[in-house]
Amino acid sequence: MAMMIMSILVMWGVLSLSIFNMLILLWLGLTVFLAAEQRTRGLSLILSGTGMGALFFLSHTAILVSQFTPRLDSQLNFWWRVGWVPVVCSPILWYWLILWYSGWPTQHRVPALALSALGIVLLLLMFFSYPIPSYTEVMALDLAQTDTLWNMPLMFVLYPPFAILCILLPLNALYRPMPSKRLMGDLARQRSRPYLIVSSGLLLSVGIFVTAFLVWVLGAAEKQHPLVSSFLFAPAIALFDFFLTLLVAMAVLFLGRAVVSYEVFTGKTLPRRGFLRHWRNAIILSGGLSAFISASLMLQPPPLYSLLILASTTIVFYALLSWRSFVHRDYLIARFRPFVGSNSLVAYLTQATQPQEDPAYPLFETLCRDMLGTRCACLVPLGRLGPLVGAPLCYPPAAPVAIPSLSTDRFSPEQVCMPMDDVSGFCWAIPLWAERGLIGALLIDAKMDASLYTQEEIELARISAERIIDLRAGQEMARRLMALQRHEQTRERMLDLRTRRFLHDDILPTLHLAALHANSGTEQEQVVDLLAEAHNQLSNLIHQTVNQKPLRAFHWPDELRHRIEREFSPLFEAITWEIRGDLPALSDETYDILLPAVKEVVRNAATHGRGNSSPAPLHLKVQIGYQDQHLTLLVIDDGVGFRYHNTPRARGGNGLALHSTLLAILGGNLSLEVLTPHGTCVKSPCPFTTLCIR
Questions:
Q1: 620 or 36: which leads in pLDDT
Q2: 498-513, pLDDT tens digit by residue?
Q3: Which structural domain, as residue segments, surrounds residue 508?
Q4: Cα(642)–Cα(640) distance, rounded to whole angstroms?
Q5: Closest Cα partner for 264 from 196, 168, 170?
Q6: For the ranges 150-164, 257-271, 420-434, 481-495, which has the lowest average pLDDT?
Q7: In this structure, is residue 692 part of a structural domain?
Q8: What are the CA-CA distances from residue 663 to residues 145, 385, 625, 657 (Å)?
Q9: Per the structure, how many domains does the chain have?
Q10: For position 608, what pLDDT does the model report?
Q11: Do 202 and 285 have their domain in common?
Q12: C-beta neighbour count of 533 within 10 angstroms
């Protein structure tokens, strides 16, 4: 009785594993093929390999079920023949798949072609000869009708070395792959190699055990012992079958883990977390369905009950998957809540002085700690928003990292991320883009758990970092404009008070004195002098308080040159001008912002160019160029250079910050750089594609 229960449990386990292998291989092959970026030869190989594996376990399941369904006995030989087709094809497909994954190593070309030719010969023998006995003949150990070689069936002689070599040789290709051409390809190979090696080892064990079984069958055939002559011998065969099927299931699970964790066959740059989640769901669903289906096939209840239970089981699994999707959705919402919540912009703008804590840093900390789980990160603003955004953000704040100097030329819009081997403390750089081009780069180190970054994490990090830079730029721009508004209000109030005081203290006494002289009969000449004095005072007051529009020359560079030289020529030994290209016409609003910005830059050059040492000759050079619908204005001096906190790149004072904000509103920027060995260069490029008047 105990032996019978053991046999039933073993048979149920074998049948469950067989159905599980069939389902999971179908899911893996179809999902990888459909989720890949491009339809390559490797995808065809993995789809063919998983399809052949599913076909084998389909035939294996049919043969097992025939023991409980007598009407299927007539189909045993058919499924036996069908099952040998994937048995022959699967090893060579596995070899070709590993070669494709390893970059087609040159040392494997001859063995691959030789084994492929042997596989084709075995298939031709299957269709046009009789290299293996039928299932009935195997059970009866009747090998008389089979084509033999050295008194052994052809398939028993040729297949074992073919299968073992097709699984053994890929191990060498896994250890010596060719360099990968895709981003993070070598790292993905390094991480996924242990899983593929374990899969190859398990398949190699299966091949060795199958070879041993064939040798044992030949030995039993020589002794004329039927394979199932006794009741006690059948459970041993079932246990052996269970062991081999379990090894194949473990190999499939390790292969699937390598595929979904590191995207080694789909061609994706980064693995996707959702792929791994669906893989786990597929394992659970396949395991539950295979256990139920195998029990139904063994017990054979009425079809109505089987269908009802199968439908109920499916809907229960679907409900569990829906529940997990909602849990994952709530998890994502909780992670993104800081980015959709209030950023206290009103409180930030209403403060007269800049707050000590950056409002964007809590978002950056959430991004690095909760979303990425990175050890160290740095958000570096670049491009036109760089001078406006300010200093880079670092995580953690006290991390001893050196902020690198990045060039905008090393990034392109096609790059999702790029390795940073030349920057100490960081592994990857994520370029950040906006409508105006490159706005920054997010530098990240390895993850805390030493795993790879997924594609979803990189995309979310890019979107979040772009939002942080836009937030900082918008807050800083609004704060500077608010400060400018306060300054203008204060200046107008002071100007109004000064005007009133001037009228009350100077103009009114003069007019009063002129009226007294006129009433007393004083000479008319003296009265006229008093009125003329009052007129001059009023004229000077009007000239000082009223901002007159500058008179346009017919070419705005000429007027700009006239204004700069008239006001700043005494401060420099020489001012030279260089104009390149056919400059576009500027609108009044653009010129009214550009002129004060240039004057502020020239004023800073005159103030800081000579430094604190003895006066030295100071020269100024202004270059104006127009190319690719971009107007660039360079103001270069040969002074001592402007230093800010001992860094080679300076931000300038409040005046430059204000004018850089106004230029940013127009779509331009203002940057200040220290030249080597001395001097200062201020660059103000503006894309006048929308500001140019045609």
A1: 620
A2: 677 777 667 777 777 7
A3: 484-545
A4: 7
A5: 196
A6: 257-271
A7: no
A8: 92, 11, 17, 10
A9: 5
A10: 78
A11: yes
A12: 16
Alpha carbon distance, N-terminus to C-terminus of the chain: 98
Mean of per-residue pLDDT scores for the chain? 77
CA distances from 605 to 190, 390, 568, 681 (A): 55, 22, 10, 9
The span from the CA of 156 to the CA of 147, in Å, is 10
Q: Do 198 and 61 reside in the same domain of the chain? A: yes
DSSP-assigned states of every residue in 439-486: EEEEEE--BTTS-PPPHHHHHHHHHHHHHHHHHHHHHHHHHHHHHHHH
Instruction: Report whether pLDDT(689) > 70.
Output: no
User: Is the torsion defined by CA of 243, 246, 248, 254 positive or negative?
Assistant: negative
Q: Is residue 551 part of a domain?
A: no
Nearest 5°: the CA angle 237, 94, 270 is 125
Mean pLDDT of 580-596: 79
pLDDT-wise least confident of 70-74, 146-150, 383-387: 70-74
Whether omega before 396 lies within 30 degrees of 0, making that bond cis, reads yes
Identify the CA nearest to 657 among candidates 348, 388, 319, 258.
388
- Please give the C-alpha separations between residue 671 and each of 442, 617, 674, 684, in angstroms, as whole numbers: 21, 24, 10, 7
Range with top average pLDDT, 67-71, 236-240, 351-355, 387-391: 236-240
CB 437 within 8 A of CB 454: no
Is 147 in the same domain as 283? yes
Q: Which amino acid is at 239?
A: L
Instruction: Give the Cα separation of 657 and 673 in Å (integer).
Output: 14
Place of tokens 């075995």: 122
Domain assignment of residue 353, yes or no: no
Gyration radius of the chain's alpha carbons: 41
Structure tokens at 639: 């002074």
Q: Residue 339, class by beta-carbon neighbours within 10 Å (0-12 exposed, 13-18 middle, 19+ buried)?
A: middle
Q: Is residue 693 in a domain? A: no
Do 6 and 58 belong to one domain?
A: yes
Same domain for 498 and 599?
Answer: no
pLDDT in tens, 127-139: 888 888 887 777 7
